[in-house]
Amino acid sequence: MLVDIDKIVVGDRIRRDFGDIRELAENIRENGLINPPTVNKEYVLLAGERRLRACKSLGWTQIEVHMLDTRDEAHDLEVEMSENNMRRNFTGSELAAGIRRQMELETAKAQERQKATQFGADGGGNISTTAGKARDKAAEHFGISGKQAERVVFVDEHKDL
Fold first, then answer.
1. Does the pLDDT value for residue 71 go beyond 80?
2. Which residues, 6 or more positions from 80, have their beta carbon under 8 angstroms from its beta carbon?
């Protein structure tokens, strides 16, 4: 359901630390709003304040929302808490698998760019430079540095030692 963004009421919420809203806003600009905020029938925000703030920072005047018919204020709070508590982050192995897959995609893109120009960005098609850049680009997708991504993959590959 599409609603005017200013119609959404942000009451007294549990979350106080919103992190880097600019990073989330950039992700929404690039990928769209994947998971809309949740409101009750009175348009009181139940879940998704970070997403709402990010969309406002992008200058959006309307936003897609999920409307939930809650019973009372206690149910509103239960929804807010469950949305934040039930989320599960990637395990180390899952993160490593994602990084590896993203690195493969970035490496393939870099190789295609090199083929198109017949020379790499460094003038000689240096594969180690390409791999390092692919690692860094892959890491960006997970909000970590290339070096951190390298360490995550290393630890995952040596977890049985």
1. yes
2. 13, 14, 46, 47
Q: 100 φ, ψ to 5°?
A: -60, -45
List pLDDT tens digits, range 1-23.
Answer: 999 999 999 988 888 888 889 99
Structure tokens at 21: 């809203």
- How many Å separate Cα 23 from the centre of its chain? 8
pLDDT at 123 over 70: no
Q: Determine the longest span between alpha carbons in the chain, in angstroms.
A: 66
Q: Which residues contact 128 (CB under 8 A, 6 or more apart)?
A: none
Give me the helices (H) in the chain, please: 21-31, 49-57, 73-85, 92-117, 127-140, 146-157
Q: What are the residues facing 45 on neighbouring strands?
A: 39
Residues 134/106, Cβ–Cβ less than 8 Å: yes
- To the question of pTM greater than 0.70 for the whole model, the response is no
Residues 141, 135: Cα–Cα separation, whole Å: 10
Any idea which residue has 């997708």 for tokens?
141
CA distances from 16 to 106, 112, 117 (A): 36, 45, 49
- Given this model, what pLDDT does residue 131 score? 56
